[in-house]
């Protein structure tokens, strides 16, 4: 008899997990507390599928940069100290990872995961039409404002095409207003942009009609129940009553930490609050055709369909989803100054989300101390990018298949 699996979480990671498990032969139930899938962190994210630009946040020199950012009124980082042991433990672990060797090792691993994810998204091409979620092979341009940062990026092996400031503005006219402020840019083809929420909705529709799918349950998981049988999860206590299966996959974003802790598993996750702005593109606007990242300001620009999506900032403020008017105003001013004619900034839709991040920036996939509980968590700002890759890994691991590359740095250990 085919095993029944419950996937906890209806964001892009949970949905991808459900699809790959269905294709692997499992019967799947997907449990999501919101009324609609993809309505949490997956809803208004940056939309970039950056398979090659996977730079971990922790790196040599980042602590000093972070100190400078804290004193900038509209800097990319905001830190609100709290009486929260997890915040301080996460920060200590993050600072310990701020080494060049640790960054190189994590980057190498994430590049392998990025390639697996790119292949996974390509596998879905015949399942979900790219038009359904505005997928576009836009390429990615990272622009640098300081010569030192630009030179360091250009010197890295396999960095990509090195463009001067003039070439950046010529090949991406949306940057014309800031050409004089740029030192140059690094371009990589093969990177894409898409609407993550629309992808979630489209994939959920395919999942719903899969012959092995048992249904969506819209309920809040209150507790992972263990102890009835040694080394196993017995059931889930939910707002709709107890639900049981043969196996469970935890893919519930930041909610995963509290649920895992109830089961005695301490996940090293902390919410990195990010903001996005979405504005309609008018006929005469000069919106970016290429996906653009402003390296020093940590601002991302992506044209998704007929809208401009701008994502930015890392706020370490706990589980606070409120829209900070000052942060949004500062971001809007930066966007207007960088791409003044890219969209209708008088009609902006703001959004904020909590990105569940590990200190290393690498997600956690695979087994737990319970033989029927599996993890797919901690993707940080790259949930959309890595969702297909980690879903495939979890499905393979649950079947006892060896992954195509070493998972050192990607597991609970």
Automatic annotation (TrEMBL):
Name of the featured protein: D-amino acid dehydrogenase
Signal peptide boundaries: none
A Gene Ontology BP annotation from the UniProt entry: D-alanine catabolic process
GO cellular component: cytoplasm; plasma membrane
GO MF term (any one): D-amino-acid dehydrogenase activity
Domain FAD dependent oxidoreductase span(s) in chain numbering: 5-397
Record bears the keyword Oxidoreductase: yes
Annotated keywords: Oxidoreductase
PANTHER family: D-AMINO ACID DEHYDROGENASE (PTHR13847:SF280), SARCOSINE DEHYDROGENASE-RELATED (PTHR13847)
Family, per entry: Belongs to the DadA oxidoreductase family.
């Amino acid at each position: 008899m085919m095993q029944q699996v419950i996937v906890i979480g209806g964001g892009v990671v949970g949905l991808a997990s459900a699809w790959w498990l269905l294709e692997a032969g499992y019967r799947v139930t997907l449990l999501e507390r919101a009324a609609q899938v993809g309505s949490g962190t997956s809803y208004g994210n940056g939309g970039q599928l950056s398979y090659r630009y996977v730079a971990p946040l922790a790196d040599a020199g980042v602590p000093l940069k972070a100190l400078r950012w804290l004193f900038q009124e509209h800097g990319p980082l905001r830190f609100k100290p709290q009486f929260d042991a997890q915040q301080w433990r996460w920060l200590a672990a993050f600072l310990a990872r701020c080494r060049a060797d640790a960054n190189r090792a994590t980057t190498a691993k994430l590049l392998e995961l990025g390639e697996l994810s790119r292949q996974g998204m390509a596998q879905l091409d015949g399942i979900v039409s790219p038009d359904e979620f505005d997928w576009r092979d836009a390429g990615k341009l990272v622009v640098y404002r300081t010569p030192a940062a630009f030179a360091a990026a250009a010197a890295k092996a396999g960095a990509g095409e090195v463009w001067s400031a003039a070439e950046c503005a010529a090949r991406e006219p949306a940057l014309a207003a800031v050409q004089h402020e740029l030192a140059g840019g690094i371009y990589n083809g093969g990177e894409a942009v898409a609407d993550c929420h629309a992808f979630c909705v489209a994939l959920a529709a395919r999942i719903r009609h899969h012959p092995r799918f048992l249904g969506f349950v819209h309920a809040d998981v209150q507790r992972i129940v263990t102890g009835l049988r040694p080394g196993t999860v017995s059931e889930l206590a939910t707002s709709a009553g107890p639900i049981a299966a043969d196996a469970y996959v935890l893919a519930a974003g930041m909610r995963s930490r509290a649920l895992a802790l109830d089961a005695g598993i301490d996940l090293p996750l902390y919410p990195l609050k990010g903001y996005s702005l979405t504005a309609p593109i008018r006929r005469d606007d000069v919106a970016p055709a290429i996906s653009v990242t402003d390296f020093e300001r940590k601002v991302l620009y992506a044209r998704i369909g007929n809208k401009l999506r701008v994502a930015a900032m890392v706020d370490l403020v706990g589980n606070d989803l409120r829209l900070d008017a000052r942060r949004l105003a500062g971001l809007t001013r930066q966007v207007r100054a960088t791409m003044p004619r890219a969209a209708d900034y008088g009609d902006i839709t703001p959004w904020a989300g909590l990105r569940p991040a590990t200190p290393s920036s690498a997600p956690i996939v695979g087994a737990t101390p319970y033989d029927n509980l599996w993890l797919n968590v901690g993707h940080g700002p790259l949930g959309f990018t890595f969702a297909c890759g980690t879903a495939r890994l979890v499905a393979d691991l649950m079947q006892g298949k060896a992954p195509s590359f070493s998972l050192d740095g990607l597991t609970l250990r």
